[in-house]
Amino acid sequence: MMTDPVADMLTRIRNAVAIERPHVDIPTSKLKVGIAEALQREGYIWEYEIVESEPRNVLRLILKYGPNGERVITKIDRHSKPGCRVYANVKGTPTVLDGLGVAILSTNKGVLSSREARAQNVGGEVLCTIY
Prior knowledge:
alpha+beta, Ribosomal Protein S8, Chain: A, domain 1, 5-stranded antiparallel β-sheet, rRNA binding
């Protein structure tokens, strides 16, 4: 039984980037699709798609690398955990590496990056940071 599916998603992305895979397959959910949309809007992945399979649908992330194979995602960390939730208001949204990275937040307006959350003037649960 998996207790933290978001941490599993981030670990799969981290491992795929470490061995320079072109894509990674993850069991799908609405929250994971929202995180994938935020990563695509912020430019950390090329695209995502939902692949229909027999037991369960799979979320496929097409990972992004630089022109010489350098990694776009250098670090991705989970912040809010099932045992210790981390919330941030509008003024408390984290800045990652002085604006070079982003935090992904689950808000009442959907899953947003920290930049989008500040622009829409909302706070929420800090799911992860990425740079």
